[in-house]
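User: I'm putting together notes for a lab meeting next week and I want to include a structural view of one of the chains we've been expressing. I don't have a solved structure, so I'd like a prediction I can at least talk through. The sequence is below, exactly as it appears in our construct file.
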Amino acid sequence: MMNHRPILVLPPTDVQVIDCKQSEAERDFYEALFKRSKVQFDQKNREYVLKEFSDSKEKMVLLMSLKAGGVSLNLTAASNVFLMDPRWNPAVEEQAIMRIHRIGQKRVVHVRRFIVKDTVEERMQEVQARKERMIAGALTDGEVRSVRIEELKMLFR
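Assistant: Thanks for the context. Below is the predicted structure for the 157-residue chain, given as structure tokens.
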């Protein structure tokens, strides 16, 4: 089994990006796992794709959406996660990351986020950090209300 396999996590609603990456990846023996409203893998096909990724020496990268990667998966064959699109809710990203960082994982898991400076995505990352502080109890109720208004203002600066 190949070590340090990456998982590229694409935006869950951007089917065109996923299709583009899938076509590119197939030429290089990559495997794809998608959960879409039109085409969803049944449990048998899903298990097959995951087994192929885990066992194959040729299947080097797994492409998936956060929706597909966030539930009922054990992806310990990978140790690198590339998050291509931030989510409003940091827990959604964390759940997908935890599919890789599970019992049985023998390697350090590396998470990389691709954020372009001075973009909505950068501001979304700031919003995520604020939400994480709220969850941790770092803000009072008054500060939470203020933060919500500031989140909206920050996105459209």
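A couple of points you could mention at the meeting. The chain is about 45% helix and 15% strand. The CA atoms of residues 134 and 144 lie 7 Å apart.

User: Perfect, that's what I needed.
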